[in-house]
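Ticket #4471: complex job returned nothing on first submit. Input attached below:
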Amino acid sequence: MSKRLSITLLTAPAMIVLLGVFLIPMLLMLLLSFQDENEAFSLKNYALFVQDPFYVQILWRTIRVSIWTVLATLVLGYPVAMYMAQATGKMRGIVTMLILAPHLISVVIRNFGWVVVLGEKGWVNESLIALGIIEQPLRLLYNELGVVIGLTDSFIAYMVLALATSMYAIDPSLNKAASILGASRVRTFFSVTLPLSLPGIIAGTTLVFSLSMSAFVTPALMGGTSVKVMPVIAYEQIMATLNWPLGAALAFLLLGSTIVLVTLYTKLIETKRYKEVFAS
Amino acid sequence: MTKVIDVELRGIMKKFQNNVVVQDFNLQVEQGEFVSFLGPSGCGKTTTLNMIAGFLDPDGGDLLIKGQRMNGVPPYKRELGMVFQTYSLFPHMTVAENIAYGLKLRKVGKAEMQERVKRVLELVKLPNVADRYPKQLSGGQRQRIAIARALVIEPSLLLLDEPLSNLDAKLREELRDELKRLHQEIGVTTIFVTHDQEEALSLSDRIVVLNHGFVEQIGTPLEIYNQPASEFVHTFIGKTNRMEGEVSGVEGERLTLRTKEGMTIHAGKQERPFAHGQKVVVFVRPEKILLTDTAGPGINQVEGQLQLASFLGSYTECEVRAGGHTLSVKVQMSDRSAEREPGTQVFCQWNPEDVLVMPAERG
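Support reply: We reran it on our side without changes. The output follows.
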């Protein structure tokens, strides 16, 4: 059997499924987004986006929440990945399991857990008041902070695993080499570890950004009615208002913005030097 | 001229958990000296090097570099150069940036930095690779750059951690000669860790032979080779024929020995005194045995049958069954009679001076 034929046959089942349940529905939705109430061709759904600042604000909020989530997962996940990179194989396995374990529980349940923890009578506020640090409970839910906390919890595992994978590839003796040449630990981190983990940073940030942009459950549960993001209003248009064309248009605007932003971001970071160093 | 001591180890001890891996290591390395730590894996040579570099701290004893006590001083404050087995060049930096890394940390001016990078690249004979990335270089070139990076900061001490182990045989020899040339040219005090006795013998002013965390012997290559302090040193340094037996006669400095298998061997002057009847181990190196077709005049002579001959280029390694022993014999290619067929009757002879006698270990 030729190599080409075997590749075709091996990928065929997945291709058929993707075609049937993903590509064709997507194309149908795309067509739908260019229709008005009378099913005639129209650009009005996209025009609305330009005319009504409400939608632009929601897109901007979606991007803002996603960027904060990326930064939070990166800052919190990086030390964990660093620990994993220098740990023994057994400890790596244990940490990986601990990171993935929360995902065994439905995201809905986990978000309600956060509601219990972060609410006005949750233990975070109660303990801060008991310690005399604050007098009034902090608002940790039903605002952008609440959404970012929820999304960070949901997606930090992806960030850690992407970072750790790139750090496993760093030869530990490079740290020794930098040290003997006169670099302190901090200097070694910024001149060796950080630049060499760049592929993991790019993978982790783009992954978490895309996931946050399209997240629905967490913003709906932890943002409430006051922090609406693009997936939530697209859902409302389709399920509540029954305005499918507008819902479809909002979904494609979200998809388009995510693709443009991720492309710009990777183009910016992946310089000529980056490609020369990390190309296999 | 007074000797300047660059490195001094005083009773250095290191343990991992309850395992003592280096014990009572005492050594003085003179300025400009090339000292090798030689031993099998797990003998403590790399652990000791890591203590000198500062990656590990000794659990006992004192470490002095240039007269300064270094215990607890982090590696980045020790002003050392080090070359690693895996090259350890920074993959995201060009060759020039790799070499300049240590200079940058020392805040050397740009013009001087470029000059020094250029000079050291010429020193390692790779003047045209400054703008390449490490992965665009061959293994041998990478190790030369790693050496250049270590030397450019003009370290007080150069540490080499099995730098040749990852190279193939031909390159290894080439780079070994290169190390020798560099050391002669710049004379930097060097500590070299290796498990390869040939590397140690050819490069070193002195060799420290280590086994199970203990120093077995410290000496010049010739001393290590000719006057091994222990059976371990003798067997580790090269192939040998080992025979057990006892002393059957003592006449002045000369000894007569009788092996368990019943062969009589005459031995010349030994380092240690031996008594009649003492249990001993007798060694003769394969290259000291002469193979002849007819009996010769030597007093150590035994007739045997050639069993195996492996042609290895410059010499042939033979196995001869003689006097109840299987003797390994190295026959140089210059010996025209090297091409013998297995099964041939031959005579093995060797000088009493080439026989090494050691007391048998108790137990």
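Chain A has a mean pLDDT of 93. Closing as resolved unless it happens again.
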